[in-house]
Every structure is written in C-alpha cells, then in structure tokens.
Predict the structure.
Amino acid sequence: MEISARNVLKGKVKDVNPGAVNTEVVIELSNGVEIVSIITKDSAERLGLTDGKAVYAVVKASDVMVATD
Amino acid sequence: MEISARNVLKGKVKDVNPGAVNTEVVIELSNGVEIVSIITKDSAERLGLTDGKAVYAVVKASDVMVATD
Amino acid sequence: MEISARNVLKGKVKDVNPGAVNTEVVIELSNGVEIVSIITKDSAERLGLTDGKAVYAVVKASDVMVATD
Amino acid sequence: MEISARNVLKGKVKDVNPGAVNTEVVIELSNGVEIVSIITKDSAERLGLTDGKAVYAVVKASDVMVATD
Amino acid sequence: MEISARNVLKGKVKDVNPGAVNTEVVIELSNGVEIVSIITKDSAERLGLTDGKAVYAVVKASDVMVATD
Amino acid sequence: MEISARNVLKGKVKDVNPGAVNTEVVIELSNGVEIVSIITKDSAERLGLTDGKAVYAVVKASDVMVATD
C-alpha cells in the first residue's frame, strides 16, 4: 500500500504504553531521534507493536507545524 | 513558549513552495531525513522561512500514525 | 504496508481537481457514497490518481466526528 | 447546523466503548461499511450515543488520505 | 445538527480569502478575538460565507494544543 | 518559540481531568469563553498545568471548521 501522507519515516518501536482506548507508542528513528504516537489500542494490537519492531511513523504534511526560536 | 505537542524535531528549511493560500515547507532534520509541512502562506511569511533557516517540525502525538511492512 | 489508521475504505477515484499546492480528490465508495479528500498535489501525482483508479480512503478514528440531527 | 466539513456520512451506532477520557464509537453506514470514531467521553454522553441511534460520521476533506495497493 | 466536537464558538465572518482549492476565513468571536480557519473553497461557497455572517468556529478538543510562556 | 499555527488564544486553565493516556484540559479565554483540549497526560504534567495557570490554546487554521445555523 502506498499512501498520500507525505512523511513516512523509518524507525523501530522503543516503547508501548497501553491505556483504556488509546495506546502511546514511542518510535526511535534511525538517527536516534524519538517520535511519539498515540493510536487506538486496537490498532496497536492489530499491528503487533512490540519493542524493537520495525515500523514507520506516518505523518500528513498538513499535520506538521513549523516553529522558530 | 513550551507546547503540549509531544514531537518537536530540530531541523532547517530546505525548500519553500508558496501557493495561493498554503505554502509547502521542506525541513531537513539533523540526520538528513526530510519532513514536509503545509502551513498557511501568512504563517510562512510571518516566520520568515527561507532556505537554511533553523526551525522545528512540531507534530502532535495523535497525528503520528504507525505503519508496518 | 499496514497502517494504524482504523478506517480504510475501498473505492475508486471519481474526480481530481488540482490547485497550486493541494489537490481535491473525490472517491466513490463501493456503495455510491462519495468521500472528498484534500492531499498535496505532489502526492496526487506520485500516486497516479486518475478517474476510475482503485484507491482506499484512509481516515484516523480521531478524525471522525459524530453528529446527530 | 450546516458545517464546512465536506464529508457527512449517514449511518447508525453499532458499538460504543467508553474509556477514561475518550470513547470509541463504531458507526455502520447504510451499506454495511463500518467507520470507527474516537470522541471525548463527554461528547458521547452529551449526544446520547447508544446502539442503533441514527448518526452522521463527519470528516474534513483534509483528514482523508488516499492509498493505493 | 449536534456534533461531537467539543468547541463550538460563536462569531461572525470578518474576512474571506479564496485560493484555488482552499479558502481562508477569519472569524471574529464576540469578544473581538479573531480565529482563522482554512476550509475548502467549495465549503465556503456552499455555506455562503460573506463578511458579517453569523457563524460558529468548530474545533475538536484533540486539535487544541496547550502552550505556556 | 514562534509557531506556524495561526491561532494562539490567551487564557487560563480552568480544569484538568487526567485519564490513562490522555488528559482533558479546560481553558477559559479572557472573555469567559471556554475551550476544551485533549493532550497527552505526559504533556499536561510536563507543562505543569494546574487550575489558574496562564496558558495559550493553540489551534491550526486547518483544524477550525465553520458552521452556520
């Protein structure tokens, strides 16, 4: 599957913290940078997200804000 | 200013493509990875985004999806 | 690729309207219902979206609001 | 009330799963297709969402991604 | 229509700036505070948005970030 | 830090309701209008959000819908 979202960043799961409805997933990109994701608990289970698993962080361009110091 | 968005990734502007209402901004993270952002043209001008400028890509955790191969 | 977004709805492209930065894509689901998408022009071109092409409309659960009459 | 969101899809509630802050709502569209929504628990209660209730799934065009096989 | 989005703020249209695909709408809340919206051009036309028109700014709770100085 | 998000509304925290993964924050704008935010529990703790604290509600223009009666 190829998706319209412009940003598909390679990484691996570093941490998975399940809540009642949502689960927090910490993804470590290849360069050591961490990116945090909140997805539904069902999706986390469906994707079989466990520590070390190779994943992509997928982000739409319109969901990326820009900030300056 | 500190913000609730969990992901604040350091980088610099690599490209700025203005449209009528929105502008596309390509940000190069420190590791060479590129992340693409769409913001309003007014915001791009207000922030003075030009090639090479140091910026942050800011993304809410709930806007980060996870994908597997 | 499998994605955390909960909603992956099968359909086909009914219309593609490109702007300067963004493109509007109308997707007809199998039941005749239409769903409208705005993606970047680059993504529309990269995916080769043309009338009749088989696609999926992908929507995160947190982006689906509920309304009542 | 009429809203700018382009997608207003008719359906009925098929399932409601409340968490601490958010509630997951499964909506069955007229054609049997299911769409999953995460809204705040307060909103789910305010709207009186129970199984079988007629509702609309409301989605902004910019929140609809497009994927191809 | 009642909607799950938690924030429905009363105001009136102060400015409408159409682009090719999207339109920028400036809404003045009752207290003089301005809130800016980007919607599709089609939606702006469908809603008949013109200066002075009474409208609501509708925002999901998960789309509101919090910042501190 | 200056951010591309067009809407940065001054207010103070009126209520904080933590869940397992997400926290609901009610912000009272200077005019008495309330705006509700859902952020991650970690962010709420990192920002030290307690009743009465001065904060900003930050919202992207593309996350503001427009509705009419």
